[in-house]
């Protein structure tokens, strides 16, 4: 029992490090970074997009090499890349240096989730897994809160903050080595096949995740910039808004419970529409800036719940490969963010925040066209992946039946 708690706690810490600090703290600190390094909005967007592109590469590597390296080594590698990237940001002297450092930090986020999902699948029973995955996913919110608090007490010293974050990363990396399980000797190196991507529901999962990721960059990359330039927020008020976003995001720890009660489909749709409303609200908040805090909180809660719903949706489609079931939607979210960050920056420069936020709210709403109503199918009716065995199918059935109960037969 103690070992399982230690596993979830260490996984929560790695998620906070790689997502909250290495990935999303960039948006919070961007106004100060832009001023010091003389970056325009488009350049800042390309740097953010580069970090998301590195995230994509990290996920692909984790899915392909995870079976050979094992969960512990891959998670430690995620911690090392996050720590290195954060340290390099602290000493960046130009946009090019910053871009390379952020790409390395972004790589860590791609390496993070697949081994954690696989470790949870190995060490926890089917009832505990959705709750554990939801709690681990909420680590992003904890990292955001930490970055917000740090900014409030640091008086704009972004380089010192990144150095502090790198120190935290080193400690988390050591913890991971002792908390995650050693590689299993009978582990098979199944590689996802093209046939896996033809499973019913996969196209909808990928399309929805891509559009959600693209639209989310409006706040993750440029939210702090809009608060400063459009509403006149000082750094401490921006940090407070970020803390509100992160604190509300802790509600994502309840995603497993929400899907047990209502099903993945309704939770997924509600979260997408809430984020679309938040983007519209951020534009309207220029008329009443106090609304910005409520808008940021709404977005934070909805984003973490949405990513948790994608996680469970993917695992429902790939219960025989939980790491791939998690990695695929997260990869598509990252691809969307790779495209969305520079696009939003370009529209923001050309047409202003109202137009950019309205357009990206529409993109967010369009992600609701696809929902996991028909996503669950029995493993025996699915094409087998390379290296998958009948015994592997049998082992996957309990987890699959549990996720099928979450999804239900809402559209049947």
What is the helix content?
A: over 70%
Annotated CATH architecture: Up-down Bundle
CATH superfamily: MFS general substrate transporter like domains
Q: Label the structural class.
A: mainly alpha
Mean pLDDT value = 82
* Beta-strand content: under 5%
What form results from the Cα inertia axes? globular
Query: Over the alpha carbons, how many angstroms does the gyration radius reach?
Result: 20 Å
Distance between the termini: 39 Å
Order of helices and strands: HHHHHHHHHHHHHHHHH
| Tally of discrete structural domains | 1
CATH class: Mainly Alpha
Major sheet size, sense and barrel closure: none
Query: What is CATH's topology name?
Result: Growth Hormone, Chain: A
Let me know the number of strands.
0
Residue ranges: pLDDT <50 for 5 or more in a row?
374-412
Q: How many helical elements?
A: 17
Quaternary organisation: single chain
List keywords for this structure.
MFS_trans_sf; transmembrane; MFS_Efflux_Transporters; 412 residues; cell membrane; single chain; mainly alpha; 17 helices; MFS
Can you tell me about this structure?
- The protein is mostly helical and 412 residues long.
- The protein has a single domain, classed as MFS general substrate transporter like domains (Growth Hormone, Chain: A, Up-down Bundle).
- It is 78% helix and 0% strand.
- It is built from 17 helices and no strands.
- The chain has helices spanning 2-21, 25-37, 41-69, 71-90, 95-123, 128-137, 139-154, 158-179, 202-220, 223-231, 235-249, 255-262, 264-284, 291-317, 322-351, 353-366, 390-407.
- Helix 1 (2-21) packs antiparallel against helix 8 and helix 2 crosses helix 10.
- The longest helix has 30 residues, at 322-351.
- The protein is globular, with a radius of gyration of 20 Å.
- It starts with a helix and ends in a 5-residue tail after the last helix.
- Mean pLDDT is 82; it is low at 374-412.
């Amino acid at each position: 029992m103690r070992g399982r708690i230690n596993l979830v706690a260490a996984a929560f810490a790695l998620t906070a490090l790689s997502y909250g600090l290495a990935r999303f703290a960039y948006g919070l600190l961007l106004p100060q970074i832009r001023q010091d390094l003389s970056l325009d909005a488009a350049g800042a967007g390309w740097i953010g997009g580069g970090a998301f592109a590195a995230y994509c590469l990290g996920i692909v590597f984790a899915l392909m090499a995870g079976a050979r390296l094992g969960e512990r080594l891959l998670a430690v590698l995620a911690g090392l890349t996050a720590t290195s990237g954060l340290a390099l940001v602290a000493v960046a002297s130009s946009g090019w240096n910053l871009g390379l450092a952020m790409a390395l930090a972004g790589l860590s986020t791609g390496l993070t989730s697949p081994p954690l999902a696989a470790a949870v699948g190995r060490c926890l029973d089917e009832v505990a897994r959705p709750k554990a995955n939801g709690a681990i996913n909420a680590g992003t919110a904890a990292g955001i809160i930490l970055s917000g608090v740090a900014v409030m007490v640091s008086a704009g010293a972004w380089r010192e903050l990144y150095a502090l974050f790198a120190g935290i990363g080193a400690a988390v990396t050591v913890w991971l080595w002792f908390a995650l399980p050693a590689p299993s000797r009978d582990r098979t190196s199944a590689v996802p096949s093209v046939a896996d991507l033809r499973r019913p529901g996969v196209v909808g999962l990928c399309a929805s995740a891509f559009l959600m990721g693209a639209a989310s960059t409006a706040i993750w990359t440029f939210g702090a910039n809009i608060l400063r330039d459009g509403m006149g927020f000082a750094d401490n008020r921006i940090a407070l808004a970020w803390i509100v976003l992160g604190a509300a995001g802790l509600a994502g720890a309840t995603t497993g419970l929400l899907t047990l009660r209502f099903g993945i489909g309704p939770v997924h749709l509600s979260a997408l529409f809430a984020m679309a409303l938040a983007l519209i609200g951020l534009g309207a908040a220029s008329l009443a800036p106090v609304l910005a805090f409520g808008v940021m909180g709404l977005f934070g809660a909805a984003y973490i719940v949405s990513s948790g719903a994608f996680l469970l949706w993917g695992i429902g489609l790939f219960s025989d490969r939980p790491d791939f079931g998690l990695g695929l939607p997260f990869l598509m979210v990252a691809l969307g963010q790779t495209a969305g960050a520079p696009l939003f920056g370009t529209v923001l420069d050309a047409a202003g925040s109202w137009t950019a936020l309205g357009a990206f709210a529409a993109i967010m709403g369009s992600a609701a066209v696809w929902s996991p109503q028909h996503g669950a199918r029995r493993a025996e009716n699915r094409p087998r992946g390379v290296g998958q065995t009948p015994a592997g199918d049998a082992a996957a059935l309990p987890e699959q039946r549990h996720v099928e109960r979450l999804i239900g037969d809402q559209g049947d």
